[in-house]
Design a protein that fits this description.
Number of strands: 2
Structural class: mainly alpha
Strand content: under 5%
Order of helices and strands: HEHHHHEH
Mean pLDDT: 86
Helix content: over 70%
Low-confidence stretches: none
Number of domains: 1
Distance between the termini: 60 Å
Strand order of the largest sheet: 1-2
Oligomer: single chain
Radius of gyration: 29 Å
Largest sheet: 2 strands, parallel
Shape: elongated
Length: 171
C-alpha cells in the first residue's frame, strides 16, 4: 500500500514537472518612459507641486518674518503683547505645517492627483500585459524594475516592446 501511494505521488509530481511554466519580464520604467502621456502627466504634477510648494514656502517665510519682527520688538512689548505675538507666530507655523500636510502628506492632494492621473495609464499597461500573457500562456510576468532580486534574465523573455506595441507605441 505504501509503495502504491509513493508511486502515485511520484507520478503526480513528475506530471507537474513535465509542464514547463512560462515566465516573462517587463521593465515598467522603460515602458513608462516611452509613453508620452506619462511624461506629460509627470510635467503636470511637477508644475502643481512647485506651485503648492511656493504657497507653503510663502507661509513659512511669513512665520519667519513675524518671528524676526517679534525678536526686534520684544524689548518694547508688554507681557500680554508678547503672548499675543507668540501665539500668532505659532499659529502661522502650524498653518504652514497643515498646508504642507494637506498638499504633500500621505493622503494629500499631490498623492490624489498623481493617482487620478496615473491610474488610467497603469490600467492600460496592465490590460496590455494581461492580454499578451494570456495569448502566450505566460504563468508569471515580473516587473524587472521593481524586482530587485533578479540578477540576470535573458532578454528573450522581456516583453516590454510587445507591451508598447500593444499600446500603440512602436519600438
Amino acid at each position: 500500500m505504501k509503495k502504491l501511494i509513493l508511486l502515485c505521488s511520484m507520478a503526480f509530481l513528475c506530471a507537474f514537472a513535465g509542464q514547463a511554466q512560462k515566465f516573462a519580464l517587463i521593465d515598467m520604467q522603460y515602458i513608462l518612459k516611452n509613453i508620452p502621456a506619462y511624461e506629460m502627466t509627470n510635467e503636470q504634477l511637477s508644475q502643481v507641486s512647485k506651485q503648492w510648494q511656493g504657497e507653503v514656502d510663502a507661509l513659512q517665510q511669513e512665520a519667519q518674518n513675524m518671528y524676526k519682527s517679534y525678536q526686534s520688538d520684544m524689548v518694547f512689548l508688554s507681557a500680554d503683547m508678547k503672548n499675543k505675538r507668540e501665539e500668532a507666530i505659532v499659529k502661522k507655523e502650524q498653518d504652514a505645517r497643515d498646508l504642507k500636510n494637506k498638499y504633500f502628506g500621505p493622503e494629500g492632494e499631490l498623492y490624489k492627483k498623481r493617482e487620478s492621473l496615473m491610474k488610467p495609464i497603469q490600467d492600460e499597461i496592465y490590460t496590455a500585459v494581461k492580454e499578451i500573457a494570456e495569448a502566450n500562456n505566460y504563468q508569471v510576468v515580473i516587473d524587472r524594475a521593481s524586482a530587485m532580486s533578479i540578477i540576470f534574465a535573458s532578454p528573450k523573455i522581456d516583453i516590454s516592446n510587445q507591451v508598447l506595441q500593444k499600446l500603440g507605441y512602436s519600438k
